[in-house]
Amino acid sequence: MRAEASQLKIYDSLAGEKRNFTPLKEGFVGFYVCGPTVYSNVHLGNCRTFISFDMVYRYLIHLGYKVRYVRNITDVGHLVDDADQGEDKIAKKARLEQLEPMEIVQQYSLDFHHVMSQFNAIPPNIEPTATGHIIEQIQMIQAILDNGFAYESNGSVYFDVEKYNESHPYGELSGRKIEDLISNTRTLDGQEEKRAPLDFALWKNAAPEHIMKWPSPWGVGFPGWHLECSAMSTKYLGEEFDIHGGGMDLKFPHHECEIAQGTASNGKSPVKYWMHGNMLTLNGQKMSKSTGNSILPKELFTGDNKFMEKAFSPMVVRFFMMQAHYRSTLDFTSEALMAAEKGYDKLMEAVKTLQDLKVTNESSMDVPALIGQFYKAMNDDFNAPVLVAQLFEAVKFINGVRDGKQTISKDDLASLQTAMHDFVVEILGLENAEQGGEEKLAPVMDLVLDLRQQARANKDWDTSDKIRDGLAAAGITVKDSKEGSTWS
Ligand code: AMP
Ligand code: ZN
To answer: 46 C-alpha vs ligand 1 centroid, how far in Å?
Structure first.
């Protein structure tokens, strides 16, 4: 473990304050993040949440923790109204597209994985699916029934919120009072099965035409969305685990219900630190698929969308997201992305420059103190924007050394190189994609430029221009000089 690990503070949404981070088991962290419901392409809002938690995961690893990161795939039970009513989101899409639900699940799981790798997010250690854990879900429901916190009704099982609230405060995470919740919850049509409108489904009886259904002690049906996460997190991380993350919009009812289910089944609140990421907005409104106010990653990378003036690369978008704290909202605009692009280039350029700086006997800056600031920022509830500001202090210094206005010693150069790599590449997850690409392209480019050289020697200007224009269209510029041609 790194010494800095003892300084980490995490804002726990349940406590409503930053708390020193002490894992349940020394050296290990159990980490669960609610994954996507795979019925459509993930939009950039979804991506922000997953990128934020990727940064959290990366920092925990950097500190020396052995992290078990579990992020589920919701492939059944998430209903259209995000509660107990309406069609299953995946089944609905399958019906509209005349496909099997599992074809929908496969298509959008692949898209999700592809997008996450474009954003350089590390895959979780376990990625359980809800349909793969029906038995565990049935067992957990049975335990809640046995403990008297749920009841069966017409082949469905509901969680008895008022009964639970007699011994545990329901609403503690989202800061809601049960009296207000009761008076604000209307009795909806088709909910007669419930004893009270606030009760939520753990298991739902399936109508004959329903496709995704399983046998259970209560008849043929399917699990409730909230229950799935409780069952999967318990299976892989235990009845009590360290960190649970998700978007702010999942606090209520999803996470509130997870606390109730965990407590009702084994008597303990399941999570030590609750983390919630804030929303990505577009034109000031929450990015959301249902309102049409969203951009897909692909549309941003190609520039094919009605919101942005140009295309932006995945690394620029990731850097842009790191410029805001994960608990603040972030608004997506062309101008902000343009500025992020400049900043990203400047940062990556400095990382390159740092590789061959000249050293002297003494440094004109307190380099260890600067690196200490990097840790201080991240230990303060993963404050990436403050880290970025400190990284730009380093950029200024690096460029100063390059220009002969500042000096750096041999030892400080070595520590700064390590620290910049750790924080820029390993923790913020910003790899210089172009740099890696250039290495792979080099042998191909040697061949292409050789052919072009031959064409020029033969005064075949058509071919030579065709090659240069084709390369330009692919984003590669060729410069000719007396010594030959270079490319970038
Ligand atoms: P879903 O697939 O709808 O269950 O959402 C997957 C994740 O994306 C959840 O953690 C949501 O909180 C999160 N999410 C949805 N919309 C946004 C948004 N506009 N900004 C940030 N996170 C979001
Ligand atoms: Zn969940």
So the answer is: 4
Tokens of 487: 């490319």
Nearest CA to ligand 1 atom 8: 46
On whether both 157 and 260 belong to a single domain, the answer is: yes
Q: Is the dihedral of CA 237, 252, 8, 70 positive or negative?
A: positive
Range of the domain at 139: 3-277
Residues having CB closer than 6 A to ligand 1 are 34, 36-37, 45-46, 48-49, 246-247, 249-250, 279-280, 286-288
Paired residues of 326 in beta bridges: none
Number of folded domains that form the chain: 3
0.85 exceeded by the pTM? yes
pLDDT tens per residue across span 102-157: 999 999 999 999 999 999 999 999 999 999 999 999 999 999 999 999 999 999 99
Cα–Cα distance measured from residue 169 to residue 25, given in angstroms and rounded to the nearest whole number = 27
Select from 394, 427, 460 the last residue of a domain: 427
Q: What is the pLDDT of residues 334-388, one digit of tens each?
A: 999 999 999 999 999 999 999 999 999 999 999 999 999 999 999 999 999 999 9
